[in-house]
Amino acid sequence: MAATVFILNGPNLNLLGEREPEIYGREPLADIEARARSHAVSMDLEIDFRQSNHEGALIDAVHEARGKAVAVIVNAGGLTHTSVALLDALNAFDGIVVEVHLSNIHRREEFRHHSYVAAAATGSICGFGSHGYIMALDAVHNLLERASA
Ligand code: CA2
Predict the structure, then answer these.
(1) Domains of the chain with bracketed CATH
(2) Number of H helices, E strands in the chain
(3) Mean pLDDT of all residues in the chain?
(4) Which atom of ligand 1 is nearest to the CA of 100?
(5) Distance between CA atoms of 121 and 133, rounded to whole angstroms?
(6) For residue range 32-62, what is the model confidence (pLDDT) as tens digits?
(7) Cβ of residue 13 lying under 6 Å from some atom of ligand 1
(8) Considering 54, 63, 81, 101, which one is annotated as catalytic?
(9) Helix, strand, or coil here: 94?
(10) Residue 75: CB within 6 Å of ligand 1?
(11) What is the pTM of this model?
């Protein structure tokens, strides 16, 4: 049976492709999901792809991932820089955690330089646009292969 990876997207990422294309690109989240899904299938991974504008819904999703998923890939949007509660939830997840950002948060405003999610992440990817989600899936696949070798 294919291992499951949760891909969680935080506030405002439902607006992708509609505004600020110079920062976040022109691709809608649905297209990113479709690309991630077909890439995951090629590596025999199943994905559960979600977006929520609500901190509690994202925390519930991380709780749901416990015992269901081998990895959580998370672009927490603005909650990255504010949410101790999401950090606590991710710390309670035993699998792989990959933090993804479309933009390079370290080249942007000072307040985006700190990430609470990073403190719970196996690794972080930022600045490669939507390809970051593919890179994150590759990283999960690589870690799983290494663990089963
Ligand atoms: O670069 C990323 O992926 C971010 O997680 C995106 C967040 C931002 O707060 C983080 O600092 C970095 C913002 C997502 C909002 O996305 C929008 C997309 C289109 C129009 C407006 C917002």
Answers:
(1) 3-148 (3.40.50.9100)
(2) 5, 5
(3) 97
(4) 3
(5) 15
(6) 999 999 999 999 999 999 999 999 999 999 9
(7) yes
(8) 101
(9) coil
(10) yes
(11) 0.97
